[in-house]
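Work Package 3 (structural annotation) set out to generate three-dimensional models for the target panel prioritized at the project kickoff. During this period the team completed the workflow that converts sequence records into discrete structure tokens, so that structures can be stored uniformly alongside our sequence database. As a representative example, we reproduce one entry of 453 residues exactly as it appears in the project archive.
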Amino acid sequence: MTSNIQVEGNPAFARIPPWVKAKLRPIAIEKIQQVHDWIENECIPAERIYKAQLKEARWTTPAIVTELRKKAKAQGLFNLFLPNHFEESPGLTNLEYSCCAEIMGRVYWGAQTLNCHAPETGNIELLAKYCTPEQKKKWLHPLMNGDFSSAYSMTEPDRASSDATQVGIKMEITDEEVIINGRKLYGNCKYNDEMQIFILMGCSDPDNKNPWNRHTTLVVPANTPGLKQVRNLSIMGYDWAPEGHGEYIYENVRVPRENIILGPGRAFEIAQGRLGPGRIHHCMRLIGQAERAYELALVRCYEPRKKPRGKFIGEFDSNIERVADMRMTIDAMRLVVLNAADTMDLQGNKAGRYAIAQSKIMVPNALLKVIDEAMQIYGGQGLTQHTPLPEIWTYARFVRVADGPDSAHRHQVGRDQMKTAQGFRARAEKYTERYKELCRKWNLEPEEFWGIV
């Protein structure tokens, strides 16, 4: 099969590096073009329609999104994120999907119209990877079809989020059911009626000597008696309706034992399988958000009504250099993300954890600066609802914490790198031995170097 789409000179592929283009199969080229046309023609022009509809019904998915989801599904654009090693996958690799996800990220809710938004991406991949056929029929297939939405519930208000072994919500597992008591943060809001299931991680075996085997993951229907939403949590002043972030109390919540995923005590196995792809998906979309901020900055640079001292803003040297730095930063971060996606394809999510952590640490931090520079170019207007920039910046800041704070990922990377230290020390000692041999040959007195004699 070959694609008749012209890649070179095509705006859909303009930012994709040559080494990635060389790996794109015809199916990916077709999907990237479709997603590009979709976001450009269907989503960006509808941004103000979305806002107007959301204002009328704050916790209801805007009608424009519902209509677009039906249209996208009919065009085969649903669930593009699910990697091609799953039988339910539309067929793309992680690397190929990265190119699509960046384009989706140009509009915050663009991915939702294609069923490729958080937390659905992580939850669907979790269910596809770990559920039984019966569980898939009950939860996976409806989620992939867009019949309802879901939430992932792991964070707790009185536990250190950087150490998930401390997750403490209590799960009592009997022969027939699981009884749950405790509190959770950040699962999507029940205010939106489409949100119908929570994928919950809790502590079912607190006395287990292995802290990694104390926890269990299961599905809790949102309407289960005893599950109460306390409030929506605003993020940097935004309520993020219509999905939001809830704070929850579980009080004697009872669900059938068959709602357990994979088995009791296997929550960490599931969490690692879920969180790796989820982290990289955030970064993929954030590249698109940064590109949108960059383009808005260029638009502002040649606004004819804004000409201080008779010059376009873009004619000042400081802004020319600012735009250059923005451009190079986005391009560099794209390479970091694409490398992580390619590593996941070639070596698997577990082997790719360094590349994933690298993306999660570097990309949000770098792109926050890019978006901030775009806001500077707009001046006071860049802080208002006149542009998407404040929400784009807030999303980038949120991504720095989503799925774990920077320090947790840095610790993981640093700890893994420390394991290589003795190997490098042994190599340095060999250099020293060879140096001493050369000293003897050339009748020189050896000197200490690199702290090794």
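The two ends are 62 Å apart (CA to CA).
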